[in-house]
Specification:
about 350 residues; alpha/beta; six-stranded mixed beta sheet; 13 strands
Length: about 350
């Protein structure tokens, strides 16, 4: 008897396939799509897809707004890929790097007939990879055995998983003396879905019966490690640890959600767009993402797993407070964390306040 894969295992495989440019088969009843992420697509693969049928390009409404394409499907658009459209055109549609040099990409033929649920799921899968949210899809017979070697996912099975917060489990923990906070302990937690691990840095010996001074800090390689002056992340990280050390106790949750959840590669794309004059929110939108793609439910799960139910939250972001409260974590106090302003990030901070509601 063969071993079957769970939907979580299939999704993990599908994410890897998407990153490698391997087609994934999505099904919904009598409908089936072969989908490939544009970012990983090759000319040879595009030719193979054309041999199977008429390719369709699916983009998010955010990317469509930049391209001035009406979003008949609401949150996404489906565009027919013309016979003379090559790989360069597809990549230019997905990646805004050269929008200013090559602004004219139309005319576009938007598709309106039939449901777009499978295309929507394909975009969510690309985001979770994390890749640019743009996919090429071809309709194929749902019962064919020609694609038996490919990862096959049903819409009914994957949608709950793509929207679910995967449970986290403790993996290891050890004492770690730190310059900013003295005695500390690092906990590593791993999600069931094969995603990145997250870390909890316990400062001192926090009393689980009282609200703990806590910080949800999203990973920022450029700020935390390289000392970037474009953001305030590094100073916030170190200021939070220092304050916890001064108070003798605290918990810092280090969430691996780089670039507001879009990944480091896409964050660098956003930085390049900022160099062209777009602010941080506009850059995310031009890439096809929302303002913020992070999932703060992770923080609540981590706090609960470590025995905390109430926090004094070090944050300037009301969205974090709202999510903690919604997930059953009592936020007894918002503790401001206003550090790290530089000449280089003044505009970035102003955008966070004006467009993202940060209290600065």
């Amino acid at each position: 008897m063969g071993l079957g894969l769970s939907i979580v295992e299939k999704l993990t495989r599908a994410r890897g396939d998407m990153r490698m440019g391997v087609p994934v088969l999505l099904t919904d009843g009598a409908a089936a799509l072969l989908v490939v992420a544009v970012e990983a697509l090759t000319a040879a693969r595009l030719a193979e897809l054309r041999h199977l049928g008429a390719p369709v390009l699916a983009l998010t409404v955010r990317r469509a707004e930049t391209l001035k394409v009406p979003a008949y499907d609401g949150d996404l658009v489906r565009l027919a890929v013309a016979e003379d459209a090559d790989l360069g055109w597809l990549r230019a549609m997905a990646d805004p790097a050269d929008d200013l040099r090559f602004p004219m990409k139309g005319p576009f033929h938007s598709l309106r007939d039939g449901p777009a649920d499978l295309h929507r799921a394909a975009i969510l899968l690309a985001k979770s990879a994390p890749l640019l949210p743009a996919v090429v899809a071809v309709s194929v017979p749902v019962d064919t055995q020609a694609f038996a070697a490919l990862t096959r996912l049903s819409l009914a099975a994957i949608l709950p998983e793509l929207n679910r917060n995967s449970p986290l489990h403790p993996v290891s923990a050890a004492r770690l003396p730190m310059a900013a906070a003295g005695v500390g302990r690092v906990h590593v937690l791993r999600p069931e879905d094969g995603g990145p691990e997250h870390y909890a840095i316990e400062v001192g010996r926090p009393d689980r019966t009282k609200p703990v001074l806590a910080r949800l800090h999203s990973a920022c390689f450029t700020g935390d490690v390289l000392g970037s002056l474009k953001c305030d992340c590094g100073p916030q990280l170190h200021a939070a640890l220092t304050q916890m050390g001064a108070e003798g106790a605290g918990i810092l949750l280090y969430l691996n959600q780089e670039g507001r959840g879009i990944g480091l590669a896409n964050k660098m794309r956003a930085y390049s767009l900022q160099d062209q004059g777009f602010d941080t929110v506009e850059a995310n939108h031009r890439l096809g993402f929302e303002d913020d793609e992070r999932d703060f439910r992770l923080g609540a799960d981590m706090l609960r797993s470590l025995g905390f139910s109430a926090v004094r939250l070090l944050t300037n972001n009301p969205a974090k407070i709202n999510m903690m409260q919604a997930m059953g974590i009592d936020v007894t106090e918002r503790v401001p964390l206003r550090v790290g302003k530089t000449d280089q990030n003044a505009g970035y901070l102003a955008t966070k306040a004006a467009k993202s509601g940060h209290i600065l």
